[in-house]
Fold this sequence. Notes:
17 strands, 2 domains, about 50% strand, Lipocalin, eight-stranded antiparallel barrel, elongated, disordered N terminus, alpha+beta, about 15% helix, five-stranded mixed β-sheet
Amino acid sequence: xxxxxxxxxxxxxxxxxxxxxxxxxxxxxxxxxxxxxxxxxxxxxxxxxxxxxxxxxxxxxxxxxxxxxxxxxxxxxxxxxxxxxxxxxxxxxxxxxxxxxxxxxxxxxxxxxxxxxxxxxxxxxxxxxxxxxxxxxxxxxxxxxxxxxxxxxxxxxxxxxxxxxxxxxxxxxxxxxxxxxxxxxxxxxxxxxxxxxxxxxxxxxxxxxxxxxxxxxxxxxxxxxxxxxxxxxxxxxxxxxxxxxxxxxxxxxxxxxxxxxxxxxxxxxxxxxxxx
Length: 276
C-alpha cells in the first residue's frame, strides 16, 4: 500500500472518530439539560377549598381549579401553581415557600418571611363571602367639573375643567393581611381643560396620565390614576393648573404644574412627588 493511500485511510478514520465524539457529546449535552419544572398536581388538588387563618378564623382565600379568589371586593383573582414546594401566584410568578401541607392544613412563608398557618374550612356559610366572583373596579374621581373667571392684566379669562371617568384599567399591586401579593384594579380618568380670553378659545385639550411620561417615574405612573386638576394662579408665564396623580388607597401622589401661555402653548414640570 503506497504512502498516499495510507494517508487517505488515516484521515478518513480520524474524521469518523470526530463525528462519533461530536454525536456523543451532543447527546450528552441534551441528556444533561434540566427538564422543565413540573407542577405538583397532588399538592394543587389538596389546596382546593376555602382556607381560614388558624388563630383568627378569618377567611384568607379560596382555591378553585387553577385560581385563587379573595373575600374582599377589590382584589382580583390570581392564577396559581404549586412548584418546588412553593405556591406560585399570578403573572408575576411570586413564590411563597410551603412549610407544611396536608388535606386540612396549609402553612407558608409570606413576602416578609412570616409563617402563615391556615386551616381548611368545612363551614358552607363561608362560601357566601365569595358570591361576588367579579371584584369591583373602583373609580377614583374627586371632582366632576369646575369653571371660573379670572382677570389678568385687565383682561377677562374663563377656564373650564371636567374630569371624565373612563374604562381604562390601572392595576395596583399590594399585600393583604397574610402578606400575599394581590392585584387591585381601578379606572383611570381623562381630564379636559379649556381656557378662553373673552369669546376666543386659547386652549382646549384632554389630559391623560401618559402625557407625563417624561416628568413622572415610570414605576409610579404605571400604578397611578390621574385624579385631579386645580387652577392655581396666573402670572407672566401663563395660567397654572396643577394635575394630581395618585396611587389609589395610598399616600403616594405626584403633582405636575401645567402652564398654559396666552398664546395657547402648554409647558409641564414636575412640581413634587409626595411619599408616605
